[in-house]
Each structure stands twice: as structure tokens, then as C-alpha cells.
Write a structure and sequence with these properties.
CATH topology of the largest domain: Alpha/beta knot
CATH class of the largest domain: Alpha Beta
Mean pLDDT: 79
Oligomer: single chain
Order of helices and strands: EEEEHHHEHEEHEEEHEH
Shape: elongated
Structural class: alpha/beta
Radius of gyration: 23 Å
Strand order of the largest sheet: 7-6-5-10-8-11-9
Distance between the termini: 53 Å
Largest sheet: 7 strands, parallel
CATH superfamily of the largest domain: SPOUT methyltransferase, trefoil knot domain
Number of domains: 3
Length: 266
């Protein structure tokens, strides 16, 4: 029977012969392989992992970002966009440098003023981490709004607090979202690999676009699909039937960005 050993850098699987001091190949599921790992290195890695387990902490509390503003309170900027607590204590949030020390309200206002005319909707995605990943990508591409469809609440941890800077709306039913899109003049595009879907790669996307992403197993519901002007699919070249919904959302949003957005800010 094999023993599974892990460290921060690697996950290795060694047969019992590793415990006897021999070097063995490392076998992984699905026919994947890594080079042989010396037994001593594997055991050392195991001891290091046991002594220093990696903590799963939100990005905004890790030691990233900047410390207190140099020079003390006398040197603080007077611009009201700056947060005095952050100036005093430092800014460790997951934000780009131009927003260091800014208040959440100031960041939201600046992003909203430059937001793209792209909205995204997420329907009944069951994995909170996938929802969070989509929201994080939506923040990176500065979409104008994120719409969560369905009656269940989602754990926002996967978004790494990037949802705080976006316009996030909730709709209990698909019809409510479709009514909003019609009233605001947004074309609804479904991203789905079901029957009738056309290739995303060659599609001309509307500037005022609402992209809809469905659940991992069922895709977009029949009601929401009927409200889409068209369904688009991402071209695939391997054996898997579908792409992870968070990855598909990032690809689709970036496709819109390439067609309608200018260069990203420095």
C-alpha cells in the first residue's frame, strides 16, 4: 500500500520501498507521472510539511501590499479618497498599486466611472468557489455588473473580497434578469456548449452585452436559454466534454475585452 506525502511545493506518492531508502518513480492518477524522488528528500519534505502547514487565508490578510504611509500623519495626503486607517496601519488588500490606501467607496466609484458595458450573470452555480472565481475575473475586467440568479446564498470567500468593489445584484428568478436586460438595452448571450451553440471565437459580440453562465452540470436553464439571442461555445480540442465554468467565464469575458476595450491601465 502506498503512502501519500505532501508539502507546499509538491505532492508525491511513494511506495513502501521509499521507506527502505530506495528511489522509486512517483505515480499519479490518470496516467500522469513525475520523476523519481529520493526517499530522503520525500521524508524531509514530509517533516517540513508537518511542521509548517500552509494556512488557507484570504489574500487581503497575507503579508502583501504596503506598510504605513512614510513620514507619519504629517506627511499624509489630504485627498479624501485616502483611508486614514490604511495610511496609519498599511494597506495589505488585494488591490492594484494605484488604489493603495484608497477607501472602498473611492475604489468603487472610480471603477464604476470606467466600467465596461459588459454584465455577466451566473445561474445556479453550485460551487461557491466557482462563483467567487467568476466574480474575481469580473473585477479584473471591470465589468459593469454581476448578477447572481437563484435563491441560494453563496460564500463570498472565493472572490477574495473583490466583490466589494463591484455592483453585485441578486435575482431569484431568470425572468427578473431578462426584464432588466430588456429595459436597459442589453443583448443576452448564453455561454453554453449545448445543441445549437455557435463558436465564440468567430462571433461578433455586442458592446452592450449580458453574458450568462449556467451551472456546472445542467448549464443554462430552459427559461434563461429562451431569453438569449444566441448561444456561444468555446472551442475545445481535448477529450473533456466541458470546461470549468469559472475558466469558461474568464475566456468569454476576455473575448469581449479584445473586441471592445482599449489598453489596460498601467
Amino acid at each position: 500500500m502506498s503512502d501519500r506525502l505532501s508539502s507546499r511545493q509538491n505532492t508525491v506518492v511513494c511506495t513502501s520501498s521509499a521507506a527502505r531508502g530506495t528511489d522509486v518513480p512517483v505515480d499519479l492518477p490518470e496516467g500522469e507521472h513525475r520523476p523519481a524522488v529520493p526517499a530522503e528528500a520525500a521524508m524531509s519534505s514530509t517533516r517540513a510539511s508537518a511542521m509548517t502547514p500552509e494556512e488557507d487565508r484570504p489574500a487581503d490578510v497575507r503579508q502583501v501590499g504596503v506598510g504605513p504611509w512614510p513620514g507619519g500623519p504629517e506627511a499624509w495626503p489630504t485627498d479624501p479618497r485616502y483611508d486614514r486607517e490604511l495610511l496609519a496601519d498599511g494597506d495589505r488588500r488585494n488591490v492594484v498599486d494605484r488604489y493603495r490606501y484608497w477607501t472602498i467607496a473611492a475604489i468603487r466609484a472610480d471603477l464604476a466611472a470606467r466600467a465596461h458595458r459588459l454584465h455577466i450573470a451566473i445561474e445556479n452555480v453550485s460551487q461557491d468557489l466557482n462563483i467567487g472565481s467568476i466574480v474575481r475575473s469580473a473585477n479584473a475586467f471591470n465589468v459593469a455588473g454581476v448578477h447572481i440568479i437563484g435563491r441560494r446564498r453563496w460564500n463570498k470567500r472565493g472572490a477574495m473580497v473583490t466583490n466589494r468593489y463591484l455592483d453585485v445584484r441578486h435575482h431569484p428568478e431568470p425572468g427578473e434578469l431578462l426584464d432588466w436586460a430588456a429595459a436597459d438595452g442589453y443583448e443576452v448571450i448564453g455561454i453554453d456548449n449545448g445543441p445549437g451553440a455557435q463558436p465564440l471565437e468567430g462571433a461578433a459580440l455586442p458592446e452592450r452585452c449580458l453574458m450568462v453562465f449556467g451551472s456546472e452540470g445542467e448549464g443554462i436553464s430552459a427559461e434563461l436559454s429562451a431569453g438569449c439571442s444566441r448561444l456561444l461555445r468555446i472551442g475545445q480540442y481535448g477529450s473533456t466534454r466541458s470546461i470549468n465554468v469559472a475558466a469558461a467565464a474568464a475566456v468569454a469575458m476576455h473575448t469581449w475585452i479584445l473586441q471592445h476595450a482599449g489598453p489596460a491601465p498601467d
